[in-house]
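ARCHIVE CARD
CATEGORY: sequence design from structure
SOURCE FIELD: tokenized fold
FIELD CONTENT:
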């Protein structure tokens, strides 16, 4: 299965992603960030979904605004809507990033083959 999106005017790739936790699931508009080691979701969403917190594990993050730390959670599964592209037990850093409900980082992308086609201005993810 293949999922492709056209990059927006800022050259960002966005997918609709379902994140599942122990208390339910929710769909987020997620932005692909191939430079992000982890997926990122707000702490409130991590708690509301019932994602499992990795005890005492915090991640040091280096962002455009400087260094910070955030807790690490694990979801039950994360998948691209309308496809069978799904990964289980994806580690997610709990941090609110204004304008980005979900950042799709390497903890999700490492489960798939992905590519950017400059000629078509498309980002693709496939199994």
């Amino acid at each position: 299965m293949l999922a492709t999106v056209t990059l927006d005017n800022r050259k960002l790739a966005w997918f609709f992603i379902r994140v599942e936790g122990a208390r339910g699931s929710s769909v987020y508009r997620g932005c692909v960030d191939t430079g992000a080691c982890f997926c990122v979701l707000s702490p409130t969403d991590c708690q509301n979904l019932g994602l499992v917190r990795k005890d005492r594990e915090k991640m040091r993050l280096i962002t455009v605004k400087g260094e910070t730390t955030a807790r690490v959670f694990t979801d039950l599964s994360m998948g691209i809507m309308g496809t069978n592209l799904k990964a289980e037990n994806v580690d997610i850093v709990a941090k609110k990033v204004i304008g980005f409900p979900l950042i799709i980082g390497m903890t999700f992308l490492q489960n798939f083959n992905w590519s950017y086609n400059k000629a078509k201005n498309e980002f693709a993810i496939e199994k």
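CARD ANNOTATION: The longest helix spans residues 43-49. The two ends are 6 Å apart (CA to CA).
SHELF: design records, drawer C
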